[in-house]
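Q: Predict the assembly, please.
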Amino acid sequence: MTQPRTISCDEVRDLAPLFVTGALEPLDEAAVREHLLTCAEAHDEVAEFGATAQALLEAVEPAEPSAGLRDRLLAAAAADLAEGRHPAAARVGDAPAAPAVDRVIPGAPAGAAPSAFDAAPAFVAPAPVPAQLPAPAPIALASRRQTNVLRAALALAAVVIVALGGVGLQMQRDLQAAQAYREGVNSVLTLAAQPGSQAALLAADDGSVSGLGVMGADGTVKIAMRGLAATTGSEVYTAWAISGTGAPVAIGDFTVGGDGTAVATVHAPAPAPGVVLALTLEPHAGASTPTGPIVAKGVAKPTTG
Amino acid sequence: MSDVQRAPTTVSDDPPDLSDEAILAGLIAGRLDALDSFYERYRTMAYGIARRITADDALAEDVVQEAFLGAWRGAAGYVAGRGSVKTWLLSIVHHRAIDTVRRRRAVSDLPDETDGAQTPEPLVAPDIWNEVSARLDGAVVSEALATLPEAQRSALELAYFGGLSQTEIAMRTGAPLGTVKSRIRLGLLGLRRELEMRGMP
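A: Predicted assembly structure:
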């Protein structure tokens, strides 16, 4: 990396018009930036020329982008929230912090160097998705083997989130559902990190419904689901545990609101390896045999040794 | 037996004429409806600028999306008193668009390519502007720009909308380096004077 040369205040005043219009060669531009960041003088001329240059933007004829752009933007923004890239959604995990603006350079032009006007963090190449998912604390205590299994579970969950994040997450309700689901996945993964737990990816055949179910060693089952149709009246979703060729055993009921998200805790009497977890929509709570179609299912696999 | 947590379902009751500052607060809080309002308000200006610079509809949409996402993620970095929220957003659009055309030029380094930089469209008063105040501002700037000598206006546009450096402008226009430099300085000074005469700060 070439060190920018040192220039004087007079040179900065001389170069200001070229600087604010982005017409300086890269080395000169870097030199002006460096000077402005360290100079005690205000260099108002840079801000004034900069404001005039920016007025040029007002004169550009507006144009209507395609209707799809709005959907893409809002879906990408919703995915930001679900994956912790937006500062407001980054409280749980280790997502990037809000950008820091150390010193403003009024009138700084567009260019490769960081601009005070462009305080957004880099986003052109998103980091690998699993790293974005807020990780539950117990992972730090887990064995290497546990960690590997959990990493796979995290990647799985991230895939689920990403797959859903792209599908029309446009409204405030969807945003809140995304946050609720994210928190649900977090609590499910916390259970998954404990010894003797089993995890299942629960999904509909057509992918319209998906989520995670984890059975703890004590029979506690945590489920985080998205994309479920809302329940009405006395309707409930019933969770079933199916061992081998045995009959389905009802392990709990829950309702779902208009956001299609559910975070439920139910109890399985005897958690066994290879058990199938399934969800059906039932007309009433307390069903002893499934009457509705299976809306999502998956095979539970050990998450630890 | 069941323990179900559900996301609260609140409905936005924001008035349609939300101030830019209120929208900014919404962006910082991570509200998608604020981003939607922001986009509705400035999409045509943003897209107009991006398309003017990139001369490519698809690239321009990518630029606009990146810029709004940048504003969405970086709203907390907006410094009040350093220009309006609108200026801040449009500067991000400008920055992204210039970066894009420079990268593209670096890839296909053909000085005689017929892109937007070589044949800048004239800056005309907009006729599809959907904001009255913006239309007035735009018309005033266009009018002020039209009073500049052609060489000055062209040098400004090649730099600011074409992403060309002083050296590249000199090569393209055949003018000496020092002439390009003074055209840009005189162009900005003239533009400022004309804007002030028309009551713009």
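Confidence is low (pLDDT under 50) at residues 1-15, 111-133 of chain B. Residues 32-54 of chain B form the longest helix (23 residues).
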